[in-house]
Design brief:
Blueprint lengths: L5 E5 L8 H13 L2 E8 L2 H4 L6 H28 L4 E7 L3 H12 L3 E5 L1 E2 L6 E2 L2 H9 L3 E5 L9 E5 L7 H20 L4 E8 L4 H6 L5 H23 L6 E5 L2 H12 L3 E5 L13 H7 L5 E5 L15
Parallel strand pairs: 1-2, 1-4, 2-3, 4-7, 8-9, 8-11, 9-10, 11-12
Antiparallel strand pairs: 5-6, 7-12
Helix pairs in contact: 4-5, 9-10
GO cellular component, one term: cytoplasm
Pfam families: Usp (PF00582)
Protein name: Universal stress protein E
């Protein structure tokens, strides 16, 4: 987390209260760094006004940009006056998510923060199509922010993959835990928990093999996961009571554990993709994200290009 020094906040054009900007300021005040408050805008009517010359259309476009810059400056003035390093940038672009992704790539931002919306206190966080595009395609870590203050004595739940024998999953597990521990270290004594879901016995196996004992099988699988979790937690000095190995699907287990411990954020890993699969961050991650009621931090491996054919972190 300490290396996140070049933050970009995707400004919500329809909200006076910018939850993502608040969270970014919170992080920078404790961790250092700088913030870019970034907003892509577009008005198709400015492009089709045939009665105006190109220069006049450009002037109208610049006027719209200037108005939005002034609006963001007003929203940010308290932070700026208190010494937080905030750059304000508004661009003219037809596609919001593409503009953000291009900005991240061009200027090397290492953390993108964007507000996620929630229906009410009992419902999951609602992710818009723009959110999904950013989660799937943004080159840096993405923090989706729920509209609430960072909890004092809060908890961070890190989803780790204990099933795979692939080396890159071990590397990603370590990266997730290291960065989450760094976050916990400066974010109001946040408590770190680990979670992993293990599969249940297939009914087909029990039917086709009468001598098959599902209880023995389930216990063996759970034992393997517990051993792997112990090895991981001991490397980082995490107490056993803060680890959770539960039977079931990740999209059920992870949100349930997050709710049980009242986590302020869930941290999970996603594997970058190329070509036809570029629209996906991985089936497991997509299903988990859709059930969360708290902040989400999605982190990619150090080199996603090597792992295009693999699924994401559980």
């Amino acid at each position: 987390m300490a290396h996140y020094q070049n933050l970009i906040v995707a400004i919500d054009p329809d909200e006076e209260d910018q939850a993502a900007l608040r969270r970014a300021v919170y992080l920078v005040r404790r961790n250092g760094g700088k913030i870019k408050a970034f907003l892509p805008i577009f008005d198709f009517s400015y492009e089709v006004t045939s009665l105006l010359s190109q220069d006049e259309r450009m002037a109208m476009r610049q006027s719209a940009i200037d108005q939005r810059v002034a609006w963001i400056r007003q929203l940010s003035h308290y932070y700026i006056e208190s010494g937080v390093n905030i750059e304000i940038k508004v661009v003219w672009h037809k596609r919001y998510h593409e503009a953000v992704i291009e900005e991240v790539a061009e200027f090397g931002h290492d953390l993108l923060l964007k507000a996620a919306h929630q229906q009410d206190r009992l419902e999951s966080v609602i992710f818009t199509p723009i959110d999904w595009h950013l989660l799937r395609k943004c080159a840096c870590a993405v923090w989706m922010v729920k509209d609430q203050p960072w909890p004092e004595q809060g908890k961070a739940l890190v989803s780790v993959n204990l099933a795979s024998e692939e080396d890159f999953h071990d590397e990603l597990n370590h990266k997730l835990v290291k960065e989450s521990l760094a976050l916990a270290g400066f974010a109001d004594s946040t408590e770190l928990h680990l979670v992993s879901a293990y599969p249940t016995t297939s009914i087909n196996i029990a039917i086709e093999l009468p001598e098959f004992d599902p209880t023995v099988y389930n216990n063996a699988i759970r034992g393997q996961y517990l051993i792997a979790m112990k090895a991981l937690r001991q490397q980082f000095g995490i107490p056993e009571e803060r680890t959770h190995v539960e039977r079931g699907l990740p999209e059920d287990v992870i949100p349930a554990v997050a709710e049980e411990i009242q986590a302020g954020i869930v941290v999970l890993g996603t594997v970058g993709r190329t070509g036809l699969s570029a629209a996906f961050i991985g089936n497991t991650a997509e299903r988990v994200i859709g059930h969360l009621r708290c902040d989400l931090l999605a982190i990619k491996p150090d080199d996603t290009s090597e792992h295009d054919d693999h699924d994401d972190e559980d």
